What does this fold into?
Amino acid sequence: MGFRVGSDWRAPIAELERLYAGYPQPEDGIPDFTVRLFAARPWRRWLRPAVTLGGDFVLPDAAPLPLAQGLLAAEMAMNLQMALGQRRYLLLHASAVERDGCAVLMTGLSGAGKSTLAALLGARGWRLMGDEFALVDPATGLVHAFPRLVSLKNAAIDVVRAALPEARFGPLLAGTPKGDIRHLVPDAEAVARMAEPAQPALILFPRFGFDAAERGLGPSEVFVRLTQASTNYVALGERGFEAMTRLVREVPARAIDYPDADSAIAQVETLWSAL
Amino acid sequence: MAERLYRAVPADALRIVPLDDFTLIFHRPSGLSHLVTAPAPEILELLEQGPLTRAALLARLGERFELADASVEALDARLGELVATGLVEAA
Amino acid sequence: MTDQSSDQPGEERGGTTRRRALMLGAVGASAVVSIRPALAQTQASVINCEIPVPDAGRAGSYIAADGSIVPAGTPGAFPPASLAFKGEDVKTALAGGQLPGTTYEQNQAYVKYIRRLQSGTSGFTCFASLQMPRG
It folds into this structure.
């Protein structure tokens, strides 16, 4: 999946180039989506510079972000292209990690911990497939990787930095609409193996900030929650229906509540070995 | 006043997948997906055998099942939902 | 008329066939849940999206008390909002609050304008995302 990023400012492009160095070029050099970071009015390039998001697909009313958060703007814009434009794969707003050819998908509201858990599992022998989108191929049922910069927020930043002392991180973006944000660069293995799909084996709905608990979910509940977590389910029509139906019938699902990262990791490992 | 007839939509208009307490239905003409629960799948199954008036449908449901809350109003509500989503046709 | 016993496998008890219990459900209840298009980004959109009043394509036009667009200077109509309104503020106004920086009458007119937004006008996507139930 390739993106072409045009920008009225050099800085966000420089940051993207630095953090995505080591990623392969798009196939045939042809990007799948275009992202534009532009100044809505000419003076907005210099006077309290504000980045407006543009591209093949737009939410026309998105408020601009300050230039200091240009990297965040670029990441959001790329997410938006995927969210609105993806038609080949069923998109799930979920993180995914892989081990032995099988994948755990973690989905939930913002703040549930899907990015943080994916990053931490990546530090414990799992391959990071992605933290924002899991791509399900309707034809095969396999999940495909989309390992972009992992977006970590507030307290999670230090937790992950402690767990991954060797990892590369983007700059600290303080005071964004979602608090402090720092991006983790996926490790070399995640990048090298990004073309390898995996068999979904476990669907998790994590919830941070509660005593450890776990419950199974019936397929119809999983169906509703996953369609709510998909930006292109309806657009895919019957292909989407078949892909989602197959997923909920074939893959076990659990909701887990956890008070801290260590507890969550332990729960994931326990559920995984019980499969 | 002649009673309305309710009938099933053509078989190829729906892709039906029973799951648990809910049945998934993909409605091909609209491209929308619905989850339906009792008594909707039972109503759809009865109508597949041929069109029925509301009264006849209520009677058939009563024969086939132990209906705890049989009422024309309740059946009206169920049929209204099914017609609104295109899962049942009203003549 | 079909024989009911053939439809209920596993219901036989002691040689007799018991009919399965079925509830028609309350009139106000629902047996059909329809999957609506959801934009997983909607949560962020509500925080970040904006609605200009009026639409950028008709910048300079005034808003009448009933929310319709009228030529600039029309008596009794309100001038355009100086800044686009944020999604959060519009959400509050739609629930009965007041848009920031407006008088009571101005707020009424602007809110009526926003309620009439049609697909294709800028501001519609923001408005639509405010209306969509968040799963």
